[in-house]
Amino acid sequence: MQQFFPFAGDLKTISPLSLAYVGDGVYELMIRERLIGAGNYPPKKLHTAAVALAKAPAQAAAAARILPLLTEEEQAVFRRGRNAHPARRVPQNASVEEYHQATALECLFGWLYLKGDGERLRALFREAVKEEADR
């Protein structure tokens, strides 16, 4: 995944919630690309499917699928995201643990994106949504 504006700073200085902010957008875009690639569906159906894959419980399940595949460095980034305490409330459709796992996943995806590691990002995304594709 190619960046529009390559990041040249030190990723260790970026807060985990800022990484999650970027990762949320990256993950959403990857979901949308996957859905469009699966067929030409009406926008409402695409939106419903995207929301189902992007909500915290689905992201927490995706995180559980990729966690065993992470390198030590990726695990450290994931933990930073999981341990971050966002100021907003947990969505009604998610538990606190699911919300923290989802934030960790987004943090990792934001970090990989800003790092410019599109190949790893795509590989982890494929594993993250693998079970969803099998349905």
From TrEMBL:
One Pfam short name: Ribonuclease_3
Assigned EC number: 3.1.26.-
Record key words, sorted: Cytoplasm, Endonuclease, Hydrolase, Magnesium, Nuclease, Ribosome biogenesis, RNA-binding, rRNA processing, rRNA-binding
Active site: D24
Domain RNase III: 18-116
Principal cellular location given in the protein's record: cytoplasm
Localization terms from the record: Cytoplasm
Cofactor(s) the protein requires to work: Mg(2+)
UniProt record similarity statement: Belongs to the MrnC RNase family.
Assembly with partners or alone: Homodimer.
Its biological purpose: Involved in correct processing of both the 5' and 3' ends of 23S rRNA precursor. Processes 30S rRNA precursor transcript even in absence of ribonuclease 3 (Rnc); Rnc processes 30S rRNA into smaller rRNA precursors.
Protein name: Mini-ribonuclease 3
Source taxonomy: Bacteria, Bacillati, Bacillota, Clostridia, Eubacteriales
